[in-house]
Amino acid sequence: MEQLQQKLEQCRQAILEAGKRLLVTDEISAEEKTDYTNLVTKYDKATQQFLIDAFSQIMEDATFLCEEEDVADTSGKNVFIIDPIDGTANFTKYYGHSAISVALAREGRLLWGAVYNPFTEDFFEARAGEGAYHNGKCIHVSKDGLKQSLVAFGTSPYYRELRDESFRIALDVMDHALDIRRSGSAALDLCYVACGRCGVFFELQLSAWDFAAGMLIVQEAGGVLTDIHGNTPDFTAKSGIVAGNKAAHQEFIKLYGK
Ligand code: IPD
Ligand code: CA
Ligand code: CA
Fold it and tell me: What is the mean pLDDT of residues 226-235?
């Protein structure tokens, strides 16, 4: 246990170092992945490689599931699920709202999750069974129902049908909630649910690297995260995700669950 604690501390240090390297002021040029709204930068790739190298040294038996460069080996005992920059579009605009998202799964169970926004120095973290923390301070989901809640949502501009459906739900949910927010980083949206800023977050299609770390952080903060049907999401496929405090999550699923 003590040894794991030490290794996680080293992982934390690696994430902080990777974050420092994202505090750039030079011009950020972006490459298109599938179209002009789906971007990757040299920083996404460099951050991912930096973390893979660092975590491989910390845990020799680690394998990796990452967003960039088709890195998808979940065969190890310790699997790191990494989104090197969640919120790349924000990053290219110096928007200050992007995060490094890292989850560690062991034998199919989430053990540790960390989401770090280096621009604001917000470090969200959770360890299974040990609560969720924001810059070292224990956090909890809100007790608000949907009507008292800010509802965050995300949708990739490049999935057109999902985008239209997401905005349809967002428009409708405005009649049932305090207001809506769209931040551009699903990992941070989940952390905002965990610390009670938002009552609910939804997005109709996310990959494991977008939500794995945030999922543990929400759960350890007393919240719920499911797919859009109300079930445990599938880590091996893309899933619609709904996270929230228990009451607001239930209200949302009742209204929009499929
Ligand atoms: C994206 C962000 C965004 C969400 C997209 C994700 P990326 O991640 O989390 O908020 O709406 O679905 O793909 O591409 O910036 O890592
Ligand atoms: Ca990314
Ligand atoms: Ca992402």
Answer: 95
Q: Which residues pair with 102 in a beta bridge?
A: 82, 114
pLDDT at 229: 93
Tell me if the pTM is above 0.85: yes
Q: How confident is the model at residue 33 (pLDDT cuts 50, 70, 90)?
A: confident
Mutate to test the pocket of ligand 1, among 161, 180, 185, 205 (most ligand atoms within 8 A of CB): 185
pLDDT reading at 99 higher than 70: yes
Percent composition of the chain: helix, strand, coil (DSSP 3-state, to 5): 35, 30, 35
CA 231 to chain CA mean position, Å: 18
Give the chain's radius of gyration (CA, Å): 17
Ligand 1 atom nearest to 159, measured from its CA: 12
Atom of ligand 1 nearest to the CA of 155: 11
Instruction: Using the mean position of ligand 1's atoms as its centre, give its distance from the Cα of residue 205 in Å.
Output: 10
